């Protein structure tokens, strides 16, 4: 799933490629991609894109004087693919991964695609992005200048969950998902199952610094990478997530995995858990 670094890099890419251009049409191509009906997508026709904003994992395409916002959540298997031109024949709805097409007056634009059979990619056309409940309920952005170490400490105060679940909760901190929570905890040398309320003041500082450095490093690594290659770039930069069975790049121990629900986490026993493997039986509780 695209998280803060990929969505922020997409925002920067679209800021360069989309702002100032006129929208000719927006075509929904799967039955469930568009989650709103008022205003209709035709309200975007002739509008000029004035800004690209980001709310956690959400992209927000602002359509100038119309006052409309095209809010996009790519979900687990969605992606944005920039097109310098489109085939003359219109796409057939419901065929393949194509979910929505946006065509600009200059002939370029972008497609939203979603692989797999579980369709969760979501597009909302609204007058205010905070009309989207998921955006309105987001916690603070970890890259915001106002999000300092003390802000993190205030958020964690009173938390009774384990660290992995807390970092992934979009209502607590916006934009961190399964992959970067693994990476942050590896950098911080903390167990994903460590109870938040057991964190010392020094450990909160370490966690904050690991969060900022991990996310900022991922963004810097992705800058200048074409939109279509960002997913591959994300994978190449991960140290533990998705690398079960490989050597930890820090200590050389074998990276291990714990499964839960429809996902999994990866960690290094030496770096994070004092050399002790984590038991799968605990995972049924920590992300409820």
Automatic annotation (TrEMBL):
The reactions it catalyses are: Hydrolysis of DNA containing ring-opened 7-methylguanine residues, releasing 2,6-diamino-4-hydroxy-5-(N-methyl)formamidopyrimidine
The coiled-coil segments of this chain are: none
Q: Which cofactor does it need?
A: Zn(2+)
Q: Where is the Formamidopyrimidine-DNA glycosylase catalytic domain?
A: 2-121
Entries under InterPro entries matching the protein = FPG_cat (IPR012319), FPG_N (IPR035937), H2TH_FPG (IPR015886), Ribosomal_uS13-like_H2TH (IPR010979), Znf_DNA_glyclase/AP_lyase (IPR000214), Znf_FPG/IleRS (IPR010663)
Instruction: List the Gene3D superfamilies hit by this protein, alphabetically.
Output: 1.10.8.50, MutM-like, N-terminal (3.20.190.10)
Which UniProt keywords are given for this protein, alphabetically ordered? DNA damage, DNA repair, DNA-binding, Glycosidase, Hydrolase, Lyase, Metal-binding, Multifunctional enzyme, Zinc, Zinc-finger
- Domain FPG-type residue range list: 239-273
Protein family (similarity comment)? Belongs to the FPG family.
- Specify the protein name: Formamidopyrimidine-DNA glycosylase
Biological source species: Streptomyces camponoticapitis
